[in-house]
């Protein structure tokens, strides 16, 4: 008997819910269209089109340097090094090496012996130091105030020319990289 009462009460409730969900009080799925223009409008991209072209110069060592000046943004700068060493160039037996070396680069240098020493120097500048590895390249970069470009370049060159590979850092980063690889490989199926 109790089951029959429950079924009858649900039958009375369903039409009420249906009316509520489809009433004018419910927001229309087309409610955003009233803000849209019937004529497509192009965004004004002219400030970006007026940017000066990048200048590529080559140092006596063969290092290519790309510079571009932004007159309206003279207070900030981004400096970086792009290395043609991405996953595309790795063999099955060396898979993950570029990414591993990218992580290890921030473990310290001869002049800045710990990861903390690197972090403190960058943070004291109010800068941001980062890196990433893609299929084609490994990139190390810093976003700094314009006056700190020489110091940021010094840090970047020290990281790339004089890295330290402390044993405990090697084991730790090996685990980090293996976990990241596992996350990427199972992403479509997890």
Care to give the gist of this entry?
Strands 3-5-4 form a three-stranded antiparallel β-sheet, with helices on one face. A two-stranded antiparallel sheet has the order 1-2. The chain has helices at residues 2-21, 46-49, 97-104, 115-125, 149-161, 167-186; strands at 55-58, 64-67, 76-83, 128-133, 138-145.
The main sheet comes to:
3 strands, antiparallel
The CATH superfamily of the domain at 74-183 is: Metalloenzyme, LuxS/M16 peptidase-like
From the spread of the alpha carbons, the general shape counts as globular
DSSP strand (E) fraction? 15-25%
Q: Helices and strands, in N-to-C order?
A: HHEEEHHEEHH
- Total number of helical segments? 6
User: How is the quaternary structure best described?
Assistant: single chain
Spatial strand order of the main sheet: 3-5-4
Rg on CA atoms, Å = 28 Å
Query: What structural class do helix, strand and pairing data support?
Result: alpha+beta
> What is the first-to-last residue Cα distance?
46 Å
CATH class (first level) name of the domain at 74-183: Alpha Beta
Q: Mean of the pLDDT scores?
A: 78
CATH level 3 topology of the domain at 74-183: Cytochrome Bc1 Complex, Chain A, domain 1
